[in-house]
Amino acid sequence: MLKLGIIGTNWITEQFIEAVLETKEWQLASVYSRTLTKAEDFAQKFTNDAECYTDLESFFKKGKFEVVYIASPNSLHFEQARAAILAGKHVIVEKPACSNPKEMREIIKLLRKNRGVYYFEAARHFHERNFKMLKQQIKEMDVIQGAELTYMKYSSRYDSFLAGNEPNVFSPRFSGGALQDLGVYLVYNAVSWFGVPQEVVYYPTKLHNGIDGKGTAILKYPNYQVNLNFGKTANSYLASEVYGLKETIVMDNAAELKKITLFDGQGSQRDLTQEVDKNPMLSEVQDFTSVLNDPTSLDSWQQMDDWLAVAVQVNRVMYDLRTSAHLYFDADSKYIQ
Ligand SMILES: NC(=O)c1ccc[n+]([C@@H]2O[C@H](COP(=O)([O-])OP(=O)(O)OC[C@H]3O[C@@H](n4cnc5c(N)ncnc54)[C@H](OP(=O)(O)O)[C@@H]3O)[C@@H](O)[C@H]2O)c1
């Protein structure tokens, strides 16, 4: 059984724990929260046996877990992952794993020094069957003429922002904003399906505190461009598309891939949809579980390295997009080019 420790007690951690428990290969061992009653109430939903901590140092030093799942505000991911690696714990950290390339480089350096520790960015859709199938499908296209990818969902936290508050997800202090929160999914799609773009530019709609509420990013490739539309202050019902010569792949939603159709441009269409899990985090959990169950094998290392290489590229593209729009975070003050 893999022993899990968690940081962050919001709904996403519940969904993650439900996924790990579904595999029957994990147990919840340790819970960290800033508030003891919150940690205890959270743990009780799943088990009577988990230890609870309110001090992060003790959590990493004494916690009886091997793997930590970090689902805290974005700006805290780096320091928490760093502390975990130094304590010899494997890390599954929510997207975006790092606020900028400087943090990502530090993580890579730490992983080199602490061989045996695994580190995964939890980009859930990247591990789903539909995502992998699309990667293969796009690879087989003779001609690619670009893509239009959309992911835009009104956030309930925007109500709070409009009421005069600054929720973490709309705060530069916490490395928030539309690009970091939802745009990251589409950057994963672009980098995984088309490779690293040659040039990128981001046109955000900024809110009064300077953070991006929504925006459009253009990723230039040698022979085409990929346009990303994402946001947290409006809802979009647009489908997403990848263009071949005559054929077009249509996705209902580029980040929540539930229905995928290939139109051949000559009157026929084919349903490419693969089985979709009820819990959207199950695929990533299954992938991480198979690696963590065999941590000393070379295949496991290679697999983690491959995923990490994509995470590093996504992190760089995200930073280039963000800085193209003069969007800076508190976490960037430590940034040295
Ligand atoms: N994969 C997905 O589908 C998905 C979906 C949603 C979110 N996410 C990711 O999950 C992460 C958390 O997102 P969220 O919306 O749940 O964030 P959040 O509500 O702002 O914070 C998550 C947790 O962090 C702790 N926290 C909140 N504010 C804090 C502060 N100022 N200092 C220290 N700890 C604080 C809280 O736990 P305690 O009060 O118990 O300490 C809270 O439950 C983000 O990285 C986000 O991108 C992923």
UniProtKB/TrEMBL annotation:
Domain of life: Bacteria
Family: Belongs to the Gfo/Idh/MocA family.
Alphabetical list of Pfam families matching this protein: GFO_IDH_MocA (PF01408), GFO_IDH_MocA_C (PF02894)
Organism: Liquorilactobacillus sucicola DSM 21376 = JCM 15457
A GO MF label: nucleotide binding
InterPro entries recorded: Gfo/Idh/MocA-like_OxRdtase_C (IPR004104), Gfo/Idh/MocA-like_OxRdtase_N (IPR000683), NAD(P)-bd_dom_sf (IPR036291)
Domain Gfo/Idh/MocA-like oxidoreductase N-terminal: start-end pairs: 3-118
Name the record gives this protein: Oxidoreductase
Residues of the Gfo/Idh/MocA-like oxidoreductase C-terminal domain: 171-299
